[in-house]
Amino acid sequence: MQQRALIVGVSGVIGTALAEQLTGDGWEVYGLSRGRTAVPAGCTALTADLTDAESVKKALADLKVDKVFFSVWSRQANEKENIRVNGAMVRNVIDALGDGLKGGHVALVTGLKHYLGPFDAYGKGAVPMTPFREEQGRQPVDNFYYAQEDEVFAGAKKYGFTWSVHRPHTIIGFALGNAMNMGQTLAVYASLCKQTGQPFIFPGSKAQWEGVTDMTSASVLAQQLEWAATTPSAQNEDYNVVNGDVFRWKWMWGQIADYFGVEAAPYPDEMQPLEGRMDAAAEQWKAIAQQFDLKEADINRLVSWWHTDADLGRPMEVFTDVSKSRKAGFTGYQPTRDAFFALFDRLKAEKLIPA
Known about the structure:
Elements: E1 4-8, H1 13-24, E2 28-33, E3 43-47, H2 53-60, E4 67-70, H3 79-97, E5 105-109, H4 113-116, H5 144-159, E6 162-168, E7 171-172, H6 182-196, H7 206-210, E8 212-213, E9 216-217, H8 218-230, E10 237-241, E11 247-248, H9 249-260, H10 274-277, H11 281-292, H12 305-312, H13 323-328, H14 336-349
Parallel strand pairs: 1-2, 1-4, 2-3, 4-5, 5-6, 6-10, 7-9
Antiparallel strand pairs: 8-11
Helix pairs in contact: 1-8, 2-3, 3-5
C-alpha cells in the first residue's frame, strides 16, 4: 500500500530533502506551507497560516495521511513568544488531523538548541558535556523545542499515534528563502569573495575554528526520518542525527576555499561576523547575478548571515553522539565535505551561484 505523508514546512531545507526522499521511494506526499515558495516536484501543495487553527483545519479537511513530519518554526521577538507561536503551530496541525492519525506516526525535527538553549540564552547556561547525548535531557530554561515536543507527546496520547524526535546539528541542504541555511550562505560568501576580491575570512569564534564539530546533511536527516517513521522498533524515541564524521573548521575552511578557487584567509585577530560586514553584498550580488545570468538576484533569498554567525560564533565546542540511532539500526552516513560539495554543485547547476 502506498504511504501518504504530510510535510509541514515542505519548502525549507529539511522539507525539500524529505520530499525528494519520500517521492523517490514512491510515497504520496502533501506539503503544507505558507505558500511563499514553490513545493518540491511531486508534492501536492497545501497552504495555510499555521498559527491560525481555522486556517489549518480548512487546509487539511478531508486529508488522509499515514505520517506527519514537522520541520517548521517562526522566529518571534523572544522565547516566550517562540513557545506560544511554535507550540500552537504543531498543535493546530495535530488537532486538525485528529483521529485520522490513529495508528500513524508523527515526527518532529528540532536541533541542538535542545542542549545549548534557545537564541535568548544561547550557550549561556550549563551546557552539557560534548558529545551531546539524548540521555542528557532538557535544560532548565524556556525553549520552544520543548513546547513543540510536548504538543507531539500530548497528541500521541490523545489520538493514538507513535512519534519520533530528531535533533540535527547545523544542516547542509538546498532551499530558497530559508532563514537557516549555512551551506548556501557560505557558497554565496565565497562567490562574492572570488568575484570582488574580498578576503575569505572565517566569521566565527576561535573555539569553533579550532574545536571538533560535526554537521548534518539534509539527505541524511531525511533518511533517518523515513527510517523512524517506518520502523516500529525505532518509534517513540528521540534521536540525534549528524553525518557521522567530525572535523575542525580550520581544515574545512581551506577545503571550501579550494572548491571556489579562493585563498582561505588566516584566522583574524578578532571575530568578524558576516552580518554588518556584508552591508554591500546585496548590490554586489545583483551585479554578479546579471553578469552570470543567475536565477536569483535577491541575496536575501539565498543567505542567512545572522544564523551562520550564530552557529560559527559559538564560544564552545559542539558535536554529538549518534550511538542511539546506530544501535537501533540507522546507518545513514555522508562525509561533511562531500555534503558541502554536493550542495555547491547543485547551486551551480541550478544557476544560483556562478559556475
